[in-house]
Amino acid sequence: MSDPRRTALLLALIVAGTTLATPVQNLVSRRIEARADYHSLQLTKDPKTFIEMQHQLSVTNISGLDPSRWRYWMFANHPTPPERIAMGRAWADKYGTPVPPLVQR
After folding, report:
1. Residue 42 domain flag
2. In the chain, how long is the greatest CA-to-CA distance?
3. How many separate domains does the chain show?
């Protein structure tokens, strides 16, 4: 590593590798988070509270509800609030649990 060109090459390879690995890591993280959300619905059997919580978190945190595909693919390591709310509604439909159409606080 005494040659500065080798150091620059090593740093460039690290940056390129990190940039290429990030979308894959985020995809794995989103899947794990979605599985955790589903597991929480299975444990609590309370999609209404789950949906209300996701709604409140997205309002409180001023979440990006509809990121561009590129931004989602590259940077999102959690499902978006609309995806999580849709999961809660799908779970409620599957198990016949009533959920109001609009969550209001």
Report:
1. yes
2. 68
3. 1
| Per-residue model confidence as pLDDT tens for the chain (105 residues) | 678 889 999 999 999 999 999 999 999 999 999 999 999 999 999 999 999 999 999 888 877 788 899 999 999 999 999 999 999 999 999 999 888 776 555
Q: Is residue 101 part of a domain?
A: no
- Side chain identity at residue 30, one-letter code: R
Q: Which domain holds residue 52?
A: 4-95
The pTM of the full predicted model, rounded to 2 decimals, is 0.81
For tokens 């999961």, name the residue: 87
What is the rounded distance in angstroms from the CA atom of residue 72 to the CA atom of residue 8? 30
SS3 of 50-61: the string is: HHHHHHHHHHHC
Q: Is the residue at 103 inside a domain?
A: no
